[in-house]
Amino acid sequence: MRELKEKIMSEGIVLSEHVLKVDSFLNHQMDPVLMKKIGEAFAEKFRDKKITKVITIESSGIGPALMTAYELGVPLIFARKRKSLTLNSDLYISKVYSFTKQEESEITISRKFIDCSDSVLIIDDFLANGQAALGLIDMIQQAKAQVVGIGIVIEKAFQDGGRILRERGIKVESLAQIASLSDGKVRFVEEALA
Ligand code: G4P
Ligand code: NA
Ligand code: NA
């Protein structure tokens, strides 16, 4: 997506070989005009799939996921993160290990909001190692609902998440794919292949 890549080039800050900071338009301040275009782009890619729900994880997935849900005319559910382990039969619960943060957390969705009749589109801001997406897939499967695809705003293609998810046969659509962040520079996948 051209506007997104331009925004990454103009405002993204390469913090290390592994981490891109985009808090001026995605992770802290959000750009609503760009978010709307992101929602339109995801809706376009998945419109033929009869989606009934969009699912993301709080907090930074909510902006792009909400705009996508709006375009598709379906509800958005954001999984909640929590630290403590109290058993609760009203919740789907999955564990997510973050390699970036080196910590495990639990994510939950109320059983009220997904069931076996649902076809779910997962949306997230970043795809790194894929652990967040796998946690969401786990909960959607607990509900016996279908995962119809995954839409990612920024995929770090040099990490394993994209491969792991696509090897499972899941349709993964990323609006920007980063091939490398080395030498303090963002290189997109297309450039790397050119
Ligand atoms: P994974 O789910 O793909 O395995 O990713 P990982 O655990 O490594 O990511 C942990 C958190 O770090 C997630 O946010 C993810 O969006 C974010 N993240 C991963 N790589 C980058 C990066 O290069 N740049 C930025 N800005 N964020 C990255 P989170 O903890 O869920 O926080 P929130 O922002 O959604 O609240
Ligand atoms: Na994030
Ligand atoms: Na996220």
TrEMBL record:
The record's Gene Ontology biological-process terms are: purine ribonucleoside salvage; xanthine metabolic process; XMP salvage
Task: Please give the catalytic activity noted in the UniProt record.
Answer: XMP + diphosphate = xanthine + 5-phospho-alpha-D-ribose 1-diphosphate
Sorted UniProt keywords:
Cytoplasm, Glycosyltransferase, Purine salvage, Transferase
The entry marks the following residues as binding 5-phospho-alpha-D-ribose 1-diphosphate, namely A128, N129, G130, Q131, A132
Q: Where in the cell is it found?
A: Cytoplasm
EC number, UniProt record: 2.4.2.22
Q: In which pathway does it act?
A: Purine metabolism; XMP biosynthesis via salvage pathway; XMP from xanthine: step 1/1
- Class of enzymatic activity (EC top level): transferase
Q: Does the keyword Glycoprotein apply?
A: no
Q: Does the keyword Glycosyltransferase apply?
A: yes
Ranges where the Phosphoribosyltransferase domain occurs: 34-157
Question: GO molecular-function annotation terms?
Answer: xanthine phosphoribosyltransferase activity
Under InterPro entries, the record lists: PRTase-like, PRTase_dom, Pur/Pyrimidine_PRTase, Xanthine_PRibTrfase
List the GO cellular component terms: cytoplasm
Write out the residues that bind xanthine: L20, N27, K156
Protein family (similarity comment)? Belongs to the purine/pyrimidine phosphoribosyltransferase family. Xpt subfamily.
- Subunit-level organization: Homodimer.
PANTHER family, alphabetized: HYPOXANTHINE/GUANINE PHOSPHORIBOSYLTRANSFERASE, XANTHINE PHOSPHORIBOSYLTRANSFERASE
Query: What role is this protein assigned?
Result: Converts the preformed base xanthine, a product of nucleic acid breakdown, to xanthosine 5'-monophosphate (XMP), so it can be reused for RNA or DNA synthesis.
What HAMAP family does the record point to? XPRTase
Question: Entry's NCBIfam families?
Answer: PRK09219.1 (NF006671), XPRTase (TIGR01744)
What is this protein's record name? Answer: Xanthine phosphoribosyltransferase
The lineage, from the top, is:
Bacteria, Bacillati, Bacillota, Bacilli, Bacillales
